[in-house]
Design a protein that fits this description.
475 residues, mainly alpha, Growth Hormone, Chain: A, 3 domains, globular, transport
Length: 475
């Protein structure tokens, strides 16, 4: 039941990618503005995970899970009937709220259902594989529905799934009362962190629409909101995020590496789909089919090899090896030509990225969770899920803005549209290569195990086998 509910939110995060050109053509989005169809979902999703997790503890996790399914399903219906840009972006933001409500409590329920370590590891493996399956199914369904029925149906497909999941959740999941709303939650803190994330992405996406002074002012305001959030967490009686978590070198470094890794991978998914359609001339269905090998390979490797590989070689070595593969895959994509082909120019890079992600994601998850105390495991999981979304939204905003700016400059000089578009995508993939290389350097230096007699009180030793991971994003 938990996998089914999560599958819907993962599927929706991927199903929209292939439909982007159709949405842009129908509703008149600009190049950078089109990224808001994705970011409007990611920003509230990431910003509200911590608050939704806390509210789940207060009102009951099943109640929060079921309410999230209702919000997500209603928002999907609004997306499906959207007739203008504002309505679609607002409905996508509401979807993000529902997705956060649902996803924030899944891990806690999963851990409670499987207290025995071996069973828990198997359940988590299935859960991670469902994430990869959601990526494959979402990309394929996005192409099939957009081409066959229109892009509105990529959202309307959620209605029967959401209703069925809600009914099943009420029947299958055991009720829990929670701690009670009297225990309180840090609503001002949630507003500050969500506002900071939204403003950061907006600053990147709209940089070309404002003067340097306005852009710098917006860029300075976002860190100020994050600083206010940190001050709030230090003083709040019941903070969303206990600042003592950041005393752990391993936890902080692992989350930093993940932000960079996910930034590049989200950029690949989004810009890769646009390259297939706008440069190679693929239709929506063919684009969705072309993306199938990546999530299928990720799911197979995560289920078959990841846990054993980490147990044998250690999380640090496996993470670095995975990041090497991701960097190599991005480097190949940075050379895609305007007259390229899928088998020669795209598929090899896609397989490298998939293998690298399948190795790196479980390893960095284990390192992040190992850097937290046992009593902070829930908070560490919430932080890890949040940094996933932060990395995705920031990477998507930055890379799409780079690509669009380069394409506009070249077309203004008289270059052909296809050649200018391909050049913009090459620049974005070159930047993604640099991001992946930076993640590799940080992982190699900051996450190297330290051979000390006994670990510091705030930093737990890094185990050879990853403990309970957070939800892995699909490619």
């Amino acid at each position: 039941m938990l996998c089914a509910g999560t599958l819907m939110t993962i599927l929706d995060g991927n199903i929209v990618t292939v439909a982007m050109p159709a949405i842009q053509s129908d509703l008149g989005f600009s190049g950078p503005g089109l990224a808001w169809v994705v970011n409007a979902y990611l920003i509230p999703f990431g910003g509200l995970l911590l608050l939704a997790g806390r509210l789940g503890d207060l009102v009951g996790r099943r109640r929060m899970f079921a309410a999230g399914l209702v919000v997500f399903t209603v928002a999907s219906a609004l997306c499906g009937i959207a007739t203008d840009r504002g309505m679609l972006v607002a409905a996508r933001a509401l979807q993000g709220v529902g997705g956060a409500m649902t996803s924030a409590v899944v891990l806690g329920m999963l851990v409670a259902l499987f207290p025995e370590p071996r069973e828990r590891a198997r359940a988590i493996a299935v859960f991670s594989a469902v994430g990869a399956a959601g990526g494959a199914l979402g990309t394929f369904l996005g192409g099939a529905l957009t081409q066959g029925l229109g892009w509105h149906w990529i959202f309307l497909i959620n209605l029967p799934i959401g209703v069925a999941a809600w009914v099943a959740a009420l029947r299958i999941l055991a009720p829990d009362d929670g701690l009670g709303l009297g225990k309180g939650a840090d609503y001002p803190g949630a507003a500050l962190v969500t506002g900071a994330l939204m403003l950061t992405v907006y600053t990147i996406v709209s940089a070309g629409d404002h003067g340097p002074g306005t852009t710098l002012a917006l860029a300075a305001l976002s860190p100020a909101l994050l600083a206010a959030f940190a001050v709030r967490q230090a003083r709040a009686a019941r903070p969303l995020l206990r600042l003592r978590l950041f005393r752990s070198r391993v936890l902080v470094s692992a989350n930093g590496v993940q932000i960079l890794m996910i930034a590049g991978m989200y950029g690949f998914q989004y810009i890769g789909a646009l390259y297939l359609q706008r440069v190679l001339g693929y239709d929506e269905l063919l684009t969705g089919t072309a993306f199938l090998p990546a999530p299928v390979l990720i799911g197979a490797l995560m289920l078959g090899l990841s846990a054993r590989t980490v147990a044998r070689f250690g999380a640090h070595r496996v993470l670095c090896a995975g990041l090497v593969l991701i960097t190599a895959g991005m480097a190949l994509l940075s050379r895609v030509p305007a007259d390229g082909g899928y088998v020669v120019d795209v598929l090899p890079a896609m397989l490298l990225l998939a293998a690298g992600f399948a190795a790196a994601m479980p390893a960095v998850t284990g390192l992040a969770m190992a850097g937290a105390r046992e009593e902070d495991a829930g908070l560490a999981s919430g932080l890890f899920n949040t940094t996933q979304v932060v990395g995705g939204s920031l990477g998507l905003a930055a890379l799409t803005t780079l690509a669009a700016a380069r394409t506009e400059r070249l077309t203004a000089r008289g270059e052909q549209v296809v050649a200018a578009t391909a050049d913009g995508y090459r620049l974005a993939f070159t930047a993604a290569t640099g991001i992946a290389a930076l993640a590799l350097v940080l992982a190699a230096v900051l996450l190297r195990p330290r051979s000390t007699p006994s670990p510091a009180p705030e930093e737990a030793p890094v185990p050879e086998e990853a403990p309970v991971p957070a939800r892995a994003p699909s490619v």
